[in-house]
Amino acid sequence: xxxxxxxxxxxxxxxxxxxxxxxxxxxxxxxxxxxxxxxxxxxxxxxxxxxxxxxxxxxxxxxxxxxxxxxxxxxxxxxxxxxxxxxxxxxxxxxxxxxxxxxxxxxxxxxxxxxxxxxxxxxxxxxxxxxxxxxxxxxxxxxxxxxxxxxxxxxxxxxxxxxxxxxxxxxxxxxxxxxxxxxxxxxxxxxxxxxxxxxxxxxxxxxxxxxxxxxxxxxxxxxxxxxxxxxxxxxxxxxxxxxxxxxxxxxxxxxxxxxxxxxxxxxxxxxxxxxxxxxxxxxxxxxxxxxxxxxxxxxxxxxxxxxxxxxxxxxxxxxxxxxxxxxxxxxxxxxxxxxxxxxxxx
Amino acid sequence: xxxxxxxxxxxxxxxxxxxxxxxxxxxxxxxxxxxxxxxxxxxxxxxxxxxxxxxxxxxxxxxxxxxxxxxxxxxxxxxxxxxxxxxxxxxxxxxxxxxxxxxxxxxxxxxxxxxxxxxxxxxxxxxxxxxxxxxxxxxxxxxxxxxxxxxxxxxxxxxxxxxxxxxxxxxxxxxxxxxxxxxxxxxxxxxxxxxxxxxxxxxxxxxxxxxxxxxxxxxxxxxxxxxxxxxxxxxxxxxxxxxxxxxxxxxxxxxxxxxxxxxxxxxxxxxxxxxxxxxxxxxxxxxxxxxxxxxxxxxxxxxxxxxxxxxxxxxxxxxxxxxxxxxxxxxxxxxxxxxxxxxxxxxxxxxxxxxxxxxxxxxxxxxxxxxxxxxxxxxxxxxxxxxxxxxxxxxxxxxxxxxxxxxxxxxxxxxxxxxxxxxxxxxxxxxxxxxxxxxxxxxxxxxxxxxxxxxxxxxxxxxxxxxxxxxxxxxxxxxxxxxxxxxxxxxxxxxxxxxxxxx
Lengths: 346, 503
Description:
The complex is a heterodimer of chains A (about 350) and B (about 500). Chain A has one domain. Chain A is about 70% helix and about 10% strand. Chain A has helices at about 1-5, 10-25, 45-65, 75-90, 110-135, 135-155, 165-175, 180-200, 200-210, 215-220, 225-250, 260-270, 285-300, 310-325, 325-340; strands at about 35, 40, 90-95, 100-105, 160, 175, 180, 250-255. The radius of gyration of chain A is 22 Å and the shape is globular. Chain A starts with a helix and ends with a helix. Chain B has helices at about 45-55, 75-80, 100-105, 120-135, 150-160, 180-195, 205-215, 235-245, 300-310, 330-335, 345-350, 355-370, 375-390, 405-420, 435-450, 465-470, 490-500; strands spanning about 5-15, 20-30, 35-40, 60-65, 70, 85, 170, 200-205, 215-220, 225-230, 265-275, 280-285, 290-295, 315-320, 325, 340, 425-430, 455-460, 475-480, 480-485. In chain B, strand 14 and strand 15 form a beta hairpin. Chain B is an alpha/beta fold and about 500 residues long. In chain B, the strands form four sheets. Chain B has a six-stranded mixed beta sheet, with helices on both faces. A six-stranded mixed beta sheet of chain B has the order 16-17-18-13-19-20, with helices on both faces. The chains are: A mainly alpha (about 350), B alpha/beta (about 500). The interface of A and B includes residues 200, 202, 218 and 219 of A.
């Protein structure tokens, strides 16, 4: 038990388990799964599906934070990627030889590649500002956070662009082997990233840079190149999330897509046990963090917290979770509980 | 008050830090209208003395007198109110404030009665201009401090020190970030202030500069005062003997070793330098040779190491590895050519604190292999175990963070990191600093053993006896220039002579 509780993922896991248990108490049908039309339905599946975009963004954010950085532009990048994809796909109903078919403006593959390329380009911009120009990450990415939202609105003309092209909807609404396709996307990105971090030296390099950039440079690491790559990946991951989100709602909204997602992503990374000071990081922890946030959101809705106070409830729960995850706070708490006993009988 | 009057006097100052005697019964006298240099090696007690004089540390014993009156400043602010102003080594002003705000920080002139809340910006600017005019500086005092070069910032720091009716001005290494012309300008100001009767205490590592400006010298060694001398009566060689503490006999020079280079040249640097850091230097390192670098702090030792390793880019000269011209634009390029370097600041540039000992040792090799050819955990373990054994690193668990090791063991681990890449040339900048005597000896012996195995070593240390002991050849630096080379059999005194010559 002791070694278990010392595992770095113990507290995130416990938090998620407690949240799920609370759900089960308030909603006896919480764990029920239904098999309909070859798809699984249920609260848990729903949470997995909705957590997928956040998990994607959080994975990219984890690496950025591991290098002592932060990327607060990911929400804007989500909106840009969504806008590019929606614009390029568009879609309309055409009657050909008496058969109705949906036609996209550009081939869907091209649209997806373009959207991801633009997202990666956004990451490159951030990375160059941080690593080459030497700006503080929060300021460097603040530029794109503000300007990127403008770019997305420019692309969508300030309107919500609706997509009429069914194949695109598969990304955010489709099912594979009974599970939502978005879950597979997030799992695939996580899997590839995990392999990159464990089967190549990238994980060691990123940690070294995060812990001591000067020493990493002396040891021969290309610390700037690696930092740029990390920001590029973060942009790319936000782009994938943008595709999933726009596919899910069948539209792109430059004003609101990915709004405040950067904060949820940072929260997910932190809940997962990666310190904002950089260095040691945990991809699994960030995925758990994303699940915790989504479970919490679902819980708040399902137990009927009035919408006007649900942000406050969410904030309160996050605050408590953060405190419980802090070893210092737990020690202080233990001290409070233990001290009267140690002081002898009254 | 005659110009020769003693302004500030210290008697029997003693200060201890956790059992170590940093100052031991030091007497010190500073007179009006003189520039007084405080000289000594690292750890001699110069900083401690200044900090006691300026109220940073209270003395454990002894007394301070200002114009005959006993004083006991409890803080730098209190010392300043008494008229003792200090300009520290690093310009500690606020770059994001204007020049005038910096000069009057905390003491902004107010409109109307003193204590009124409205700041009198006009008066502040006018007074700042007047103060700077005294230093022959005519600049826009409303611009940000950061918009001016370091030399001007240094002047602003002095202006701030003068703005409080100072009678004593203490300058701790004021020239370390200035170029020659800027130093000359600073000295002109100091001469002027001296003419006005200011008592100036000046700490520097640059002998030449010290002789150019000082009237009197107090030498400290191991926390004790060696003596007070008139600068004109203390030649450089005698000063160095006083600082080092040994009458270094010329007989210590052995003539048994011809110190001929044993192997082919690994690295040749011709006129490698960088403006403001190191004047062009020639160095050649041969296989199996230890080349020591002799020089005082600030002589350009570390700058040389950084240029050779590609940490800073040289703006002159050329570098050859095995006779082929190369350019190092980053350490990784240097490492590809077989170089390794243990940097001076072990905590800041050496160890990666939160990583395990194993990962720290494997890091440079992994960096050279690149991202894709990953060293398995078992390989890392094998490499780490090998060097833990050969270097005698004391560590219970190779997976524990390196930050938990003692300084000596950390240094050995950094050394192991470079040995793991099988280097041809190792640059060691202060490899024995801050570690205990036993570890020091082990590291020195290891360096000699490595050189016998064909490694070329550039050895930098502020402890001259180490340099003399391990080196086949000694490159002597002074004031950011190479002043000569000596054979390895030279005595410490010969090195110091060369450093002092011409000063």
